[in-house]
Specification:
The chain is an alpha+beta fold and about 675 residues long. The protein contains 15 helices and 31 strands. Helices cover about 25% and strands about 25% of the residues.
Amino acid sequence: MSTVVRPPSSRLGDQDLHWFNEGTYRRAYEKLGAHPCIEDGVAGVRFGVWAPNAAEVSVVGDWNGWQPTRDALTPRGDSGVWEGFVPGAAHGHKYKFHLVSRELGYTVLKTDPFGRRFEEAPATAAIVWGLDYAWGDAEWLATRAARQGRRAPMSIYEVHLGSWMRRADEGGRSLGYREIAEPLAKHVKRLGCTHVELMPVMEHPFFGSWGYQVTGYFAPTSRYGTPEDFMFLVDHLHRQGIGVILDWVPAHFPSDRHALGFFDGTHLYEHADPRKGFHPDWNSLIFNYDRNEVRSFLVSSALFWLDVYHADALRVDGVASMLYLDYSRASGEWLPNEHGGRENLGAIALLKQLNAAVVEEHVGVPTIAEESTSFPRVSRPVSDGGLGFGMKWDLGWMHDTLKFLGRDPIHRRWHLDELTFRSMYQFSEDFVLPLSHDEVVHGKGSLLGKMAGDEWQQRANLRLLFAYQWAMPGKKLLFMGGELGQRREWNHDGVLDWGLLDDERHRGLLDLVSRLNELHHTTPALYELDFDREGYEWGLADSELCVYAFFRRDSHGRRVLVVLNLTPLPRADFVVGVEERGFWREILNTDAAQYGGSGVGNLGGREAYPVPTHQRPCALTLTLPPLSALYLEAPAASEQVTLPAPSAEGATASGSRSSSPRRSKAKRRKRR
């Protein structure tokens, strides 16, 4: 492994320090941390660390026997930054900072907040690392803005690297970054997903945190290999036409003694007052977003993964917990802001700053908010008064949908609003529809296990769920294992049940997901206007028969009709009003035998006749299979022919009723 030689200009300049202290430094990682270089003809490493309350700072490591008096750093004026060039230190050496606090006599060894690589847990030292990798993804980077624009199809496969696949012949160890690249890309291409979302790969001491307790905000975890190995994984996925989304966690960090907490004998990165600085849900510390240098640190971290590791998007974890000072706190356990409100003004400012920086620095690279409340304009531009995210997870859709499909079908007629309510708000933000890891852990069971009914009905309900998800406006996300129809809930210490694919029923489910993604790519009505009101048209909601129908539409007006039969009873002669007369082609039937269904359907499609129905000029009479979703593509203008009208009786068959998507006020979901 060769070392990257950095020129003397890698030294911190006065302007760098000004930007860092001002909170506007976007790439502090270029100067702070450890950088192998040659200065005045001597090889060594230039170190820099922010520790304003330290009386002494030195670097200890492999080259000096870990002696704290050997390599002292020098303070840079009143910036709080200490730096120095250390001859003899080199690429691959382990190191820490030795700090003596000014006020408390506090002495501690800390790992580098800007470290590029760390020892594998439970060891905690940083490792001097000069990144050296020859990327081969130029074609991907040149086209990705178009690939992941607002009007592009996006379906995301969420992955936990440590439990996706393991080596049974080596004690069940997790695959490394390089080992997993080919099988992961092959599987994602088989599914037809456009992106992989990786649960946090940033260094974390506790494997059971799934990566959400980060101690290394500039380092991929060493559990699976070197930084270059991780680059290889991203590069390989890009070469296969697959985008990479990284989970990023600015909401909190663990209190491990070796890391950021109480860094220089003061609460440097976190708030000192536990009412603002301690997270009760995760037993962790909360960043002090009001501090300029903390904002420089976090924005630099976000851009680092986009700059250095070519990430195509960042999914920002725990945004709701950042926005509200009273998040998960009872009265008296939180402090209001300067205006007496509950909003965390510092966090809001940070998120706007972050998103503005990403937009300016990386065209076509979105940030995605995991945000569970009704905070306004999360996915609207900062210039328009929004937070600036590119998209937001629709957690309300996820909860409502899983609740509905967990109900016995005999009771669903009374709860159809749990599905239809989304049509009231679905364009208030630019949404991602997630079926994420959070829904298949901690006793919640698998997606298949959540479905109501006997084994056949559960499988049919799961097929219905996926087809409904892919049909609704918004980008799609599915956590690994859902496509296999696992019965076991996810366990980070386990592995996916790959053997299920020996069963044709499970292969059928995977084939359905593949078909959904194929249609998602090839049918503009199913993706082009995901974020525009023109992309969705109300059809009907028959609460008595428990049928929900709607239309998706592309920018040229071509429609796809989606009909959901939410009971196990097949429906013959069900009539839906449509605009276009002629042959409506059935492009998806989740009850098809190839997906594990009973094979009931419409023999490839049905003719629509000019009989006014449901305030539309034509009527389409369908057979609805049990617990199914149908997609029917409208005839093109050239295919629309004048057809004789059927008898009036045909237009008044079952399905002529419709209802509004609006819920009663009493039954609406309470949202923050």
